[in-house]
Amino acid sequence: MGGVARYLGELVRTAGDMTVVVNTTHEVTGPGHVESRELVRTAWPHWWPMVRVCREFGSAASFVLVSHVLPVGTAAMIAKWTGGVPYVVLCHGLDVRLAAGHRRRTFVFRQVCTNAKLVVANSEATAKDIRALVPGLRVLVLTPGVRPAATMSRSDARQRLGVSADEEVVLAVARLIPRKGVDVLLDATDRLPNREKLTVAVVGDGPERAKLEQMAEHLKHRVRFVPRATDEDVAAWYAAADVFCLPLREHANDVEGFGIAYLEAAAHGLPVIAGRSGGAKEAVVDGKTGMLVRPNDPDDVARALASLFEDPVRRGRMGEAGRARALSDFRWEDRWKRLMDNI
After folding, report:
1. pTM of the model
2. Alpha-carbon distance 217 to 271, whole Å?
3. Glycosyltransferase subfamily 4-like N-terminal domain: from which residue to which, for each copy (predicted)?
4. In whole angstroms, what is the distance from residue 147 CA to residue 10 CA?
5. φ, ψ for residue 244, nearest 5 deg
6. Residues 6 or more apart from 326 whose CB is under 8 A from it?
7. Could you give the CA distance from residue 9 to residue 171 in angstroms, rounded to a whole number?
8. CB 309 within 8 A of CB 195
9. What are residue 202's DSSP bridge partners?
10. pLDDT per residue rounded down to tens, the chain (343 residues)
11. Which of 100, 99, 98, 142 is nearest to 118 (CA)?
12. What is the sign, positive or negative, of the torsion defined by CA atoms of 186, 189, 193, 196?
């Protein structure tokens, strides 16, 4: 499940009893009652059936919560024009960048945002991009939240995963796409030959996996790829790790809106090394809960890793500060309340 889906899922889960409409090509399962209906595409554009869905369900609600500006926001806007259904639109980062620099998309983006009851951004960085396209627009910044981490001892986690007690474990949990910077992490690992106990665990899958595995061929004994991991496996890796490292960067106009994985790592008491890109600068307090490094600079990443492993007291202090901040400042319950207070 990607960051956007997790953001929406947790936000709705916090809201309690409500109807959630999901447009998907996959079977939907989960707690509660799930009712499936077939949407038949009878004409272009492909999002047109969503207009009917917004009107049908929105008529019984105070507003429709729209997951993306384009194209779902277009359907919600038409439903408002034709049926008076108000809507709130969420923006995540890449969706805003895709609208910029494209005349038709920019026009539609502005129309969707100005007709919305409220526009929500997942970070100040995303809000800045929105205001660049729609000057003067009121934008509510609602960063992702995090839930308390499941308790698993370090020793139990390492035994489960086959990790020895003296290994220095660097963890990256991500969809393997260019902007995540996992290739930079592997380059940095190659620059630390003297750290013989260093192990990098890359948990996640994606289109870059084959390229990254090939890149790590000569690091085989130091890099473990875990493409298929259960929630319990991911929790075990968080418990087993010493440092979380994901040197994000912008890539072909793709940007990380916030970085939910950073919060999850912090909730597990891990110091975080993050790329100074997009909303990551809001997820990590440089020098307090982790370190911000220059994107595309493996030497900078290597220095950050070495400094944390050479100073376990500092590493522990950052991890505890990150945990305290995550659990006090990023509660999902507070996010839903803020949303409702601003509508």
Report:
1. 0.87
2. 27
3. 2-147
4. 9
5. -105, 130
6. 146, 263, 266, 267
7. 24
8. yes
9. 172, 225
10. 677 888 888 887 887 766 666 656 556 555 555 455 554 454 555 555 665 666 565 555 678 888 888 888 888 898 888 888 889 999 998 889 988 878 999 999 999 999 999 999 999 999 999 999 999 999 999 999 999 988 899 999 999 999 999 999 999 999 999 999 999 999 999 999 999 999 999 999 999 999 999 999 999 789 999 999 999 999 999 999 999 999 999 988 888 999 999 999 999 999 999 999 999 999 999 999 999 999 999 999 999 999 999 999 999 999 999 999 999 999 998 998 999 999 8
11. 142
12. negative
Cis peptide before 86 (omega within 30 of 0): no
List of domains in the chain: 3-142 (3.40.50.2000), 154-329 (3.40.50.2000)
Token readout for 14 is: 């916090």
Q: For helices 312-329 and 260-267, what crossing angle results, to 10°?
A: 110
Smallest CA-to-CA distance from 174 within 235, 245, 280, 224 is with: 245
Which tokens belong to 104?
A: 């038709």
Q: How many helices (H) and strands (E) does the chain have?
A: 15, 10
Q: Does residue 16 come out as left (phi exceeding 0), alpha (psi in the -120 to 50 range) or beta?
A: left
User: How big is the chain by its Cα radius of gyration, in Å?
Assistant: 21
If DSSP states are collapsed to H, E and C, what string results for 117-186?
CEEEECCHHHHHHHHHHCCCCCEEECCCCCCCCCCCCHHHHHHHHCCCCCCEEEEEECCCCHHHCHHHHH
**Token pair belonging to 2:** 């990607």
For residue 94, give Cα distances in angstroms to 61, 122, 134, 327. 29, 11, 16, 27
Return d(Cα 108, Cα 310) in angstroms, integer.
52
Q: Which residue has the tokens 């009917």?
A: 52
List the structure tokens of 220.
């085989």
Distance of alpha carbon 205 from alpha carbon 212, whole angstroms? 11
